[in-house]
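Database export, one record per block. Field names are fixed; values are copied verbatim from the stored entry.
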Amino acid sequence: MTRSRSDPDRALASSENNGGDRDFTPDVGLGGGVNNNSQNVMALRGGGIDNINNVELKSYASEASSLFGNLRVPASLFAGASVGAAFAMPIGGPEGLTIGLVKRIYALLMISSLACQTVVVVVSTCTMGALALGAVEKTKSVGDLLELDYSLEWITARFFFLTGTGCFSVGSGIRAWITIGCPIFARASLGMIISATLLSFAFVRDTSRHGKDKLLHKLPVKFVKLLIQKAKKDWMFALSLLVYSITWTYIIVNAPHVWMWLAAGN
């Protein structure tokens, strides 16, 4: 007596006749969803859409702490190097407009690098401590954890690390251009530093596609927005933002005075 096939058996037999041992690859529609035929095949094999979308929630505190640690270590090295380099070219007597202006820009760049990397070290250290001691929410990925609970800390650490590294690189190029006596090797050294800096930031921009903020130029804008939101709730953040704004306003306002003073031969 021949046993009648059930519907699943008929579906499997039909699939085997049509495609042999072909893999059942889910068909993705134009809208990004899985088509009904693929749903039936996965259901026959014991799978289903629920199993694909069902991602286990767990704590990613250690992974997030490692990300901040990856920034804290090189930031400490850059901060230490910036301390000594900031005063390597003292501003003396009359040096002309070009040399006098370049030395002042160099000093400002190295002090900025020191300030930026100090922020990275402090923010990373404090956040790593909070991740180790506090109750961390379970999420689907480490990116979700950073986005939900440590968005400002993560954006701040990345933004100030990249800014501080850029200031240090540009300052090093300026120092090489000023201090190396041979013009040919001075320009060559400046070109090597510029090319290395551009290559580094090219890799930064390329690898940023793996994160949630896929466009690197949006990082400063996102940082400012998050900082303003935090400043509305915490007066310490508001005070730091105020001092930062006053400092750069002071620099911009007095820049023409420095230019004229150096142009006069002082």
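Remark 1: Residues 27 and 246 are 58 Å apart (CA to CA).
Remark 2: The two ends are 111 Å apart (CA to CA).
End of record.
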